[in-house]
């Protein structure tokens, strides 16, 4: 794959403040207005390569704004260091980093705590207007009104190398590839990159992209170069946390949802269906293999009452070549990434198609007089 990521450094410029287009034809089209407001902090943008073939029915031709990952400082190094200290103090007094929180994150549990549980950290982030900085950046970069963005979760996660002198098997040193529950997400490094080796956020779609600019490393892993830098991305891009091989890495992670009025209905469920089909490929192969690829008689009698001898109940399931052909890890990876690319092209509606009928929280109560209800009599 000879794809080179698009990388730009956004220094403060005198760009006009025209609204950013939904689907920027190049990352340079994304307005840098907010970047100037953030004290001219540098931003690096990396664009995922295309995986799906061009399809005229796609709402947007590659790349859409969601194909871009942005690395940008959202806290100064001093602010990040203060926040990190607060997080450590809280975790030390509660033991929250000693075992994965599988109640809050059922499938991909991390050793973490929600920011709202730690008053000092919450107050500090409020004081520096962290939410304002983040939402303004996400709004400009992904062309979504600030009012359409909301937190689904905001937490501090801690990864620690599994070394000989660490006897807690529960600590976490990595996070397997997954997709977040939200459309947007970010991961902000709170401690110094000098505190650990390995780590970083990896993206399956960047796996074969050559390393560059000191932030993109082999295997598609992004490692910000200083504390306070965040990687912002679409949460539906397959990603995870690379293994920390020494020291520890502390990150502030946020899942940011986008109002339904900005999303094209059906796009997420279509992608989920395809990911689900790929997920069962291995299982179907293993089941067929266990029958020697000969086919087998289904035994559905447990689902039927009555005549369990009918041919509808005991059907012959033939072995299929397709089950064997599809059981190819590289093919499965491509199918997942193709569906991801199609989702990125289609999920956001252009501004003019976003409905203004937002539910304003005003509930009208139907005029039911219980006293007149005959059933009460
Ligand atoms: O540690 C990271 O950079 C990624 C964390 C993440 O993806 C998650 O918690 O969902
Ligand atoms: Fe994630």
From TrEMBL:
InterPro entries xrefs: Oxoglu/Fe-dep_dioxygenase_dom (IPR005123)
Residue span, Fe2OG dioxygenase domain: 150-258
GO molecular function: metal ion binding; oxidoreductase activity
Highest taxon in the source lineage: Eukaryota
UniProtKB keywords: Iron, Metal-binding, Oxidoreductase, Signal
Family note: Belongs to the iron/ascorbate-dependent oxidoreductase family.
Protein name per its UniProtKB record: Fe2OG dioxygenase domain-containing protein
Protein species of origin: Nitzschia inconspicua
